[in-house]
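Two folds, back to back.
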Amino acid sequence: MHIIPVLDIKDGLVVRAHMGNRAAYRPIETPLSPTADILDVAQGLRQLYPFPAFYVAELDAIQQGLAAGALERLKPLVAVADVWLDAGFASLRQLEGVLTMDGVWPVLGSESQADTSVLGHLSGNPRLVLSLDFRGDEFVGPPALFENADLWPSRVIVMTLRRVGSNAGPDFERLTEIKRRAGDRAVIAAGGIRHAADLEQLEALGISAALVATSLHNGSLSPEAISSLMNGNDSRTG
């Protein structure tokens, strides 16, 4: 079971995400870091475990488009870990540039798609990650993108926004169904993970990895539990 720490970025700082209400997100306060700077927070997380990958959500980019300098800001992080980058990618032009960058794995969020054309062109690219985004029971994005599993790339995130930071637990039922449809693709859980028992249950369902934030910052996942779950696998997630 891979644990991938999440760094939600808003106005250039790491913020505390809660149930997908992005307007209310505020800079994170965590015992792992003296500031909300992305590199400080990442360094604090890597004191828990030398995580081989981070998930970075550029929230301003998701809502308004990727700003100049955003990718440059990530270079020090890419130097020590792979970065799965969700930045509201919605065009082939945006993705083709990112796909040339070593250590950066673009995440295609369903909420940012107008149709299935971008995914259709790039679904065979081994570095593309698809995020299937949900608010409650509602899929956010073109229905055909969710319904046609043949379009899905080799890595698929199941993002349950209402459970992010909620301490509600993962949506095991939805994850089970999507794993069944995904076949041999890697399915990654996101939203609601509380403790090691949740991760163990996900692993038993065949889920390959989990995006985690709150339980790392509040201590629910100790360094010992993280190391045990990662099973000593420190190879890069990519």
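---
second:
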Amino acid sequence: MKLSPAARSFFRYQGFLRLPIVLEADVVTRLRETIQRHIREEIEPYRRDGHGRIVRISNVWDRDPIFQETFTRPDLLDCLADLLGPNIEFMKNRHNHATLRLRGETGDNDRPLLHRDALQWSRTIVSVVFYLEETTLENGCTHVVPGTHLLPITTSTSMDVEAGEYDAQLLEQLAPLPMPRGGIAVIDGMLIHGVGVNRTESSRMSMTAGYHSVDEMVNEAPGHREVVRGSRFYLGNA
């Protein structure tokens, strides 16, 4: 699976893209059942919300083979190679989790909690979101502010509206990104984005993974990264 030149250009300038890939129904079922089992059995590490409900399980890469199979599927890596080049690493210390968006999890907030996944452009990542349930405005789909990955470097990934870190005119550009069950979206780590509010009685389940080009200036292999396409190499001065 290759991305068209127009799709690659769209990602570069807008900072996000719906991939032309949909996870097979049986793969989605296996992922959902595995995530739900790990939540029921309270297999650490996990995070609870303010109501005591487990809403995230972390380090999914090492939990079950189905996760690595999904994160390294060839059609996905083909698309990522068009964005990151031929040598790609999976980041075990960024994202690498499955989440549930439940009603009431965000308290009284009526807007997405906006953030960036990276601080500055020279070390940005490609965040990949796998939607294991259909996401809509009602159950809290992802929202993006197109083009904001091109804005200046920040000192925090949290985009605090009340603190005036960006203005109302920018917020007016916030756009929903509804996705089908099994759909996959890629987001530049510098893009301002957030998960919407779930106003339904059902969950909104997804997984998020981070990918990075192999850093040719790092001489030692980082323990928290796995090469999933190509190879690791070093081009720094001796």
